[in-house]
Design goal:
With 272 residues, this protein is mostly helical. It has 10 helices and 7 strands.
């Protein structure tokens, strides 16, 4: 049984058990959870390993998280919970995310306090999978909700904006930080763009900028799982502390980079 038949059977069950108005709401939540399967698995692994990992274990916790992430990815492909096209999106996220992690680590923005062998430039490889989980969620949500995008801006403008945002994550350490100008630019470029999606039966829509803000809020909350478990520490923080609220803005901008990366691999969703 593949993921599509599971979704279809679940939908049929809900149709028979719940009133129409309720089933739309319930299916929205279930599909969001289904799309977040990779990210959810990573968060659970981070929390449980932080609580139960034995001191002095032969395998470092960071290395376990790498092995776990790779195993989950292989299982998703083997059981057809993820397509190869979605896997290409995840690989792209992993590369771009790891590159930024290496730079930010050496710039002193944050650090990884625990030992591990599976690292590049001091960055544990599992961190790239945290970025990849964002790509996995986006690619899976587009498929699960049958998303389409209306009033989409010229594609080249979205690529230029995404590049400017990505570059600013590096360049703001040396020159003027353009994040607020870039936030304004996201509104100018995507203000009229609508996301059409189907939780179950009804075709609904939401402004893309609103979806980006809500998604960034959830990512900010998920990020605090890492800081509160001590998996990574921000500069100036002492152990268990919440990430600065400014990180919410960073996630908001990074989501546009992430979304454009998805459209680079899957242009079909932009078709009218």
């Amino acid at each position: 049984m593949n993921n599509l038949s599971i979704e279809r059977r679940l939908g049929d069950y809900m149709r028979g058990k719940l009133p129409h108005g309720v089933v739309e709401f319930v299916m929205f939540g279930l599909k969001m959870a289904w799309a977040s399967l990779f990210a959810g698995a990573m968060l659970v692994a981070i929390i449980l390993s932080a609580v139960f990992w034995p001191e002095g274990a032969g395998l470092a916790r960071y290395d376990f998280l790498v092995v776990f992430a790779v195993s989950v990815q292989v299982a998703f492909l083997y059981f057809k919970l993820e397509s190869w096209a979605e896997a290409r999106v995840i690989l792209l996220f992993h590369v771009s995310g790891t590159a930024m992690e290496i730079f930010k680590l050496h710039a002193g923005s944050w650090g990884y306090p625990e030992p591990g062998l599976l690292k590049i430039g001091g960055v544990p490889l599992f961190s790239g999978f945290m970025y990849a989980s964002v790509g996995s969620f986006m690619a899976r949500a587009i498929r699960v909700f049958d998303m389409r995008f209306e009033r989409y801006p010229p594609f080249w403008t979205t690529v230029v904006l995404a590049l400017a945002i990505y570059i600013n994550f590096f360049s703001h350490h040396f020159v003027w930080d353009m994040r607020y100008a870039l936030m304004a630019a996201t509104l100018g470029v995507f203000w009229n763009t609508r996301i059409y999606f189907t939780p179950f039966g009804a075709r609904l829509w939401m402004p893309l900028v609103l979806a980006a803000f809500l998604s960034s809020l959830f990512l900010y909350l998920a990020e605090n799982v890492g800081t509160l478990t001590g998996t990574w520490l921000y500069a100036g923080s002492a152990g268990f502390s919440f990430a600065s609220i400014t990180k919410l803005g960073s996630w908001y901008l990074l989501l546009y980079v992430s979304f454009v990366q998805v459209t680079l691999v899957n242009r079909r969703v932009l078709a009218p």
